[in-house]
What we know:
single chain, alpha/beta, 7-stranded mixed beta sheet
Amino acid sequence: MKAMILAAGLGTRLRPLTLTTPKPLLAVGGQPLIVWHLQQLSRLGIQEVVINTAWLGERLHEALGDGHPWGLRIRWSDESEPLETAGGLVQALPLLGDAPFLLVNGDVWSRFDLGQLQAPLGDDLARLVLVDNPPQHPQGDFFLMGGRVVAEPPAVAASRLTFAGFSLISPNLLAGLAPGKRPLAPLLREAMAAGRVSGLHCTQPWVDVGTPERLA
């Protein structure tokens, strides 16, 4: 199984820190944020990781190289401008291949075990990790009902959860999409409506490192 780390964001809310350093390279616990992900992926037996870049991409190349220090092979998908998540995935598909792959947001930190995502997808198009809503996102994103993720309110009482930025994605989710700038959420909602998205609830520590306060 391969993995992809999303690292192309501008990090505007973290300026001035991100004027010279891409957000995934900001230090967390003594090492770059993205290195926490690389270390865990290596422990899971992942051998090849695709990283997309846009803003200050050369800094990521310089810092991470070919991935050898972590026992990984890093493949780079450089974007001339940020393509958003689905657009970045479409561009990177030739590097990712035909099998489901782990997808990790480069700007989150968590103790969640990504190995929980590695079970076969079956007929599903995606498996998402959801967390309790953080203060900065109290409305949440999706519902988790019996291991299935749904976008519309269910008939029974339930609360929305927030997408954690960890998922297992089937390339079939992106089938037929032309290159270009495109978000991922509409594709996930279509797959949810078809009953083809499963989910896990993360109860381990999780932080969306989006502001200087959350970085601290």
